[in-house]
Amino acid sequence: MTSTDLTTHPVDQRLPAARTALLGLQHVLVMYSACIVVPLILGAALRLPRDQIVLLINADLFAAGLASLVQALGFWKFGIRMPVMMGVTFTAVTPMIVIGSNPSLGLPGIFGAVIASGVFGILVAPLMGRFLRFFPSIVTGSVLLVIGITLMKVGIDWAAGGQPTLPDGSTNPAYGRPLYLAISLGVLLVILLLSRFAKGFIANIAVLLGIGFGFVAACLFGEVRLDELNTTPWVGMIRPFALGLPVFDPVAIVSMCLVMLVTLVESTGMFLALGQIVDKPTTPDRLVRGLRADGLGAVLGGIFNAFPYTSFSQNIGLVTLTGVRTRFVCVAGGLILVALGLFPKMGYIVAATPPFVLGAAALVMFGMVAVMGLRILASVNYERHNGSALVVAVSVSVGTVPLLSPGFFSQLPTWTRVATDSGIVLTTLTAIALNLMFNGLGTRQQASDAAARSAAMAEA
Q: Which domain range does residue 429 map to?
């Protein structure tokens, strides 16, 4: 090992190219289904023709790859330069459907609003950096715990074969098939056994090998469909504004700017937690660069016929599980996403992976996110601050309302759904407010000290 290896932080270390590529592919497979589900939902809701849906998927992968490269590699004042993978935010789904359903706006109205919200995000990012003191360990830990719990339902549905109900509202007859559950269990066992008994690089790619086992099993049982592989082109260029020049509607822009604010809040919690996980605390300057990259990702998304982007929690969970902290693995993942967008045949093969193959891996990743939240919460001094336990109890309870009772906020105005549909946002707002009520606003030095303690606890 060279002196450079000893002095370089693990986040900035470079691994051999082949190993980096495989670890990057693992990150892509963990996030792939969640990455393409938004263009599928949007296409179905707007009744878009198949060729436009395919274009949206390819553009989404391409733009997600670019956004991941900006975050992980960084340039100028953009990018947090940590192991981050970017994917389309689910918070934007409802506003985009509303915008796209307007005959005078359609997809150009969506792209115009996305671009404007990205510019808005770049401009307000420095202001968010000043609010770092509002995110002590008790807030960050509560948010991470709810993120993990909320997303577990996604992994459960994937393991059972998809959504329990079809788009037309009828029950999915294939949901919970014993074959799906058996293969999901097999994937989980492979991941657990490799994580327990394998060493080194094999242990690091346990999730990738588990998914590979599930894919082969699904093929043997005829559950992988490659009927259109021969007709899928090898190369498909992603042209800016291929679906029309953007339309900038004021109402649409306001709705997407609200989405951007929600994204910035979620990303703040993610970046703070990630800094603790990789033992490289998220300073205000790093946070601002990361949030600026969120805004730039939305601008790139709108230009290339795609969407706003945010850091994916399952990939942060993968960092925790594998212990591989170098950001260049996510750089490789970003390059793979760009390639999948430019080479549709490759994307088609990856997209052919059935949801139940990915379900067990998703459960592991989302569970690791919840564990990260618990580790951070374990660093809180509950005896010194008597109200801290109440802050956690109430904020976590409020955050699980949309998951446990989807109709709880159904009587509220439609515009409130940007916040009430997201347990993550509800937890963040509740935890910040209650922490201010019981513990007050600490100094910047106190926030740094708390982050250092949390980092030590997360590494334990």
A: 10-459
Hey, which residues does 165 pair with through a beta bridge?
171
- The answer as to whether 2 is a domain residue is no
* Amino acid identity at 130: R
Is-contact 305 55, C-beta < 8 A?
yes
For the chain, helix, strand, coil in percent to 5 are 70, 0, 30
Domain-embedded: residue 266: yes
Residue 1: inside a domain, yes or no? Answer: no
Q: Is pTM, for the whole model, over 0.70?
A: yes
Contact call for residues 121 and 260 (beta carbons, < 8 A): yes
- Name residue 87's beta-bridge partners: 310
- Helix (H/G/I), strand (E/B), else coil: 396: helix
Cα separation values, 293 from 103, 122, 203, 227, Å? 32, 7, 32, 38
Spatial separation of the C-alpha atoms in residues 39 and 50, rounded to whole Å: 11
Summarised one tens digit per residue, pLDDT across range 122-154 is 999 988 777 767 778 888 788 878 878 887 887
Instruction: For residues 276 and 454, give the distance between their C-alpha atoms in angstroms, rounded to a whole number.
Output: 6
Q: Are 146 and 400 in contact (CB under 8 A)?
A: yes
Start-to-end CA span in the chain (Å): 25
